[in-house]
Amino acid sequence: MTTTSPPSLAAAHDAADGWWARHQRALAPVLFLLPAALMFTVYVIAPIFQSIAISFTDWDGLGVKRFIGFGNYVELASDPDFRTAMFNNVIWLLGYLLAIPIGLAMALFLNQTVFGIRLIKALFFFPFVISQVVVGLVFSWFYDPTNGLLFHVLRALGLPPVAVLSDEHLVTYGIVAAGLYPQIAYCMILYLTGLNNVRADLIEAARLEGARGFSLLWHVVLPQLRPATFIAVVVTVVGSLRSFDMISIMTQGGPYGSSRVLAYYMYEQALSEYGYRMGYGTAIATVLFLVMLVYIVFVLAQIWRQEREL
Amino acid sequence: MNFGKHCKRLALTTALAMSTLAAQAGELVINTDASDPAPKAAFEAVVKDFEAANPDVKVKINTFDHEGFKTSIRNFLSAEAPDVVTWYAGNRMAPFVNAGLLDDVSDVWAKEGLSDKLKSAEASMTINGKKWGVPYTYYQWGIYYRKDIFARLGINPPKTWPELLAACAKLKADKITPFAIGSKQTWPTGGWFDYLDLRVNGYEFHMDLTAGKVPYTDKRVQAVFDRWDELVKPGYFLANHPSYMWQEALPAFVKGEAAMYLMGNFAVAPMKEAGLKEEQLGFLPFPSITPNLPRSEDAPTDTVHIPAKARNKVDARRFLAFIARADTQSKMNGILGQLPVNKQARQPDDTYLKAGFAMLSSAHALAQFYDRDALPEMAKAGMDGFQRYMLNPDSRNEVLKRLEEVRSRVYK
Fold first, then answer.
1. In terms of CATH architecture, what is B15-137+301-360?
2. What number of other Cβ atoms are within 10 A of residue B122's Cβ?
3. CATH code for the structural domain at B141-298+375-410
4. What digits encode the pLDDT tens for the residues A70-116?
5. What ipTM did this prediction achieve?
6. Window A:62-121, CB contacts with B under 8 Å
7. What angle do CA B396, B399, B402 make, to 5 degrees?
8. Cβ pairs A/B, distance under 8 A
9. What domains sit in chain A, N to C, each tagged with a CATH number?
10. Do residues B167 and B158 touch, judged by C-beta distance below 8 A?
11. Which of A143, A255, A271 sits opposite B387 (nearest CB)?
12. Cβ within 8 Å, pair B77-A145
């Protein structure tokens, strides 16, 4: 007994419906993909090329565009504000990555079965639920140099007060710390779900072999958490590169531009109250895009490799 | 197909209905950023009166929030333009004028004789010899000070620079910060630069500088910073001012931890709300520095304009003429708590506005404000630079060098 139809019948079918039936299998996926692909092209791909095109012009967003070749990029190369923003992006990137080990530590700590642990977990996750804007506001009150919590704590310890958000050297670290607050919670929840899937039998076997403490974590638990680690790295890096809201809320890029990152500097140049430089803004955006592109290629390669392994 | 036909008919009727709506005679669309309670009430009042005086015109106001307006105005001026739009005088309107987005309204000025009635604001409304809008209100800047603290320490309101420095030294010795300031939004630093430059070098130089004709490395600019040094270096400004917006620096002034505040008159309302009485709160014009220099002041002017792409320019011109009238401006500014530009308008009863009016009407000339007189890019870099200098006065030369780089690029 076979499920395929007799050859004569199939031929008749083909003759009846013709071209469509013959190519249906090949065409169906294309047709299903078309609407999404179309939207993606119009709203994502095309604007990328458009803004790259604008970055070669001098344009205030209103008048005529003037083509100036690499003029904007040449200016970027010698712009101290751009260098500051770039450097701050590096601080953001490295600082933000701290969220991963801290999140892991918290997840390991909370991964136990005692009374009320669900509530505790929920509370630890809470910072991620609050809007970034609210976190930014709360932290700027925390840092308030005349009446903030930090001021009172330092005074109680007999230390001199620090105006974190007014100091060009401290300000970026101050904002990164605020950004870490929700990001750690996010990494923690990723690891908590990962820990649910760690195989108990492997742990038991490792114990029998005499592994404990750090070597158990490093050789047995962490390899099993690899998918969680991968996602945590991806979201953390992307989060650090697109950091914007915290800066806007806490300092507006100040003092005198020393807490700007590329995304904020781009916004300031092109779109803010005093920003009338679309060309320059898009040049910054293009640089940011290229930085991200390197990273995106890395991530895609990683995913591809993983899928081949499976 | 029947259904298709229906669709077509429906589309046709809707299109017809829409076009009649758009072409409806006498609809005047006004886009404004008057979102605070007082400006909103003032605009509603003027619109009501305008509609009563012109029954054939129906006015529609779209109110935007301040910050959003500053970015969205660029979109709606070049795409779906309203008939009247509010904005600011001076170089702040220059990008729109240069892009051909605003209508030349010199005819309204000529017809209504505005060059005489609105004389004090004429220069700031003129670009390339033409008028580009109509001003309806302005307000003074100056030093608001704590009368009670001054009296307790036996300080007389300073009229000259040495007197001001002496007053600051006395306040500082009593552990009171002489000047409150909040520079999280950097514009309050622009007010300081304006006043020091206006007092050291005078109006003409200040206008040349903000118009990009003088390098920032000029020794006359250095002279401004020499005076500024005398306030910054002894620590006469509120510490950590970049952590605060101007409102967040108010508590220091209200609590008496700081005794003076260089601000616009709009600061009086929150100061009074915070509990300061008129016998505690005084106003003094910025002291003179270079002797015998004609005295000029900052007086930012708010204006209305007609976009070049407006549909109903006839009624828009009627509205501009209406808002320029003495009685309209009296009424609006009564609500706004600001000064009318029309010199025939009724003058205010409020203590601070009266002082401001006396000061402005005897002034040699009126500057708009650093971020309205200088081009936007220059203003941004300038105020960042001033903030940096005020935090770290040793960075002066670095700051000025940077500003000069920006100036030579922006004013090509």
1. 3-Layer(aba) Sandwich (3.40)
2. 16
3. 3.40.190.10
4. 999 999 998 989 999 999 999 999 999 999 999 999 999 998 888 88
5. 0.76
6. 62-63, 75, 80
7. 150
8. 76
9. 81-309 (1.10.3720.10)
10. yes
11. A255
12. no
